Amino acid sequence: MTLATRSPEPPGAFAPFGVAAPFAANSISYIGIVVALLWWRPPPRVENMLPRERLGVALVGGLRFALASSALKATLVRAAAFFLFASAYWAMLPLVARTVLGGGPGLYGALMGAAGADAVAGAFLMPRLKARLDADRLVAAGTLGTALTLVVFALVSAPAAAIAASLLAGASWIAVLANLNVSAQTALPDWMRARGLSVFITVFFGSMTAGSLLWGQVANTAGIPAALLAAAAGAALAIPLTWRFKLMQAADVNHTASAHWPQPIVADTVEPDRGPVLVTVEYDVDPADGESFVTAMLEVRQERRRHGAVGWSLQQDAAAPHLWLETFRHGSWLDHQRQHARVSHAEADAEARARTYHRGPEAARVRHLLGPAPALARGRAALS
């Protein structure tokens, strides 16, 4: 008795050269990137006279900025909602090629090649699409395209249909990724760009990793088609659930440092690590404008927090309701100096809107209160 066997699949393009050939070709492709990086020269930057932040302080500052930036937070939410479900495509693609479609390395390479080719084509079409659709609609369209790809993989077992679906997946992937990247970039000033993008990349890879684990477990329990359909349903449902988190909120924001804050007046030299620093700003506001003033100050609060201020508060004088006191703290004098150097034109505009409610011939009074100097602090501790 003879066993029926399936005809072997045609080998992939690199099969005659061995398994190492694709890796060698990929490594060679990086030569152009390396040459471009060596040739590129960044534009001149304004020299910052302040010392660099320590690594731990910089990391905390990056996380604090991300939590206080509505534009970046919206981008992160949309990114997590997409990558969590879109990860099913990349995680399940080898299983789809082998188990669902009954193929091998050649078919898997064809599916990957189709996605990559249409991603490149989509990049060339992106400017034309952006002229017709905004970033939110492009991301929604890309998410729906990814969901449709997953549905085709789950319900259709024809290799030709799977390759066509991968073409759609490639175009959808680049549409979403490009717009999320730009939205994250525009939300960040220069001094926070590297740290902010690292948060974005962490969300990107974290969501992809969590999604891959999730859909792998679902496939192991309920089967590959069920996992693909569940991921498709989740991606489609995420669109209305996250629609209020708008992208490109800071596309027209001027993040350039404004240098509109005057240097604090001090009686003597202040050591950089002296702190904490309590900053108070006193406003004289017509009681009739109190509600509008408080609303305007909420935007100022976000500005202070993005620059590392903690303990922000706005208090009204019980004896004189027209007087309002804004307070916030920095860990050290150097931290507050960094806020002076980094405050932007957009943040200056937010402050100007709040200060339109301030009355009187003089500007709002600003005071800088320092924690005890080390010698004084030791003396106070000895007396207590």
Please outline what is shown here:
The protein has 384 residues and is α+β, with helices and mostly antiparallel strands. The chain is 62% helix and 8% strand. A four-stranded antiparallel β-sheet has the order 2-3-1-4.
Task: Describe the overall structure.
The protein is an alpha+beta fold and 384 residues long. The protein has two domains: 56-241, MFS general substrate transporter like domains (Growth Hormone, Chain: A, Up-down Bundle); 277-383, Alpha-Beta Plaits (2-Layer Sandwich). The protein is 62% helix and 8% strand. It is built from twelve helices and four strands. It has helices at 20-39, 55-68, 70-100, 105-132, 135-155, 159-186, 193-222, 224-241, 290-306, 333-342, 345-355, 374-383; strands spanning 277-284, 310-316, 323-330, 365-370. The protein is elongated.
What secondary-structure arrangement, pairings included, does this model have?
Blueprint: H1 20-39, H2 55-68, H3 70-100, H4 105-132, H5 135-155, H6 159-186, H7 193-222, H8 224-241, E1 277-284, H9 290-306, E2 310-316, E3 323-330, H10 333-342, H11 345-355, E4 365-370, H12 374-383
Antiparallel strand pairs: 1-3, 1-4, 2-3
Helices and strands: which structural class? alpha+beta
Top CATH class of the largest domain:
Mainly Alpha
Distance between the termini: 98 Å
**Number of extended strands:** 4
Tally of structural domains: 2
- What is the 3D form? elongated
State the helical fraction: 55-70%
CATH topology of the largest domain: Growth Hormone, Chain: A
Spatial ordering of strands, largest sheet: 2-3-1-4
Poorly predicted ranges = 1-8
Q: What is the subunit arrangement here?
A: single chain
Order of SSEs, N→C? Answer: HHHHHHHHEHEEHHEH
Biggest sheet layout: 4 strands, antiparallel
- Approximate strand percentage: 5-15%
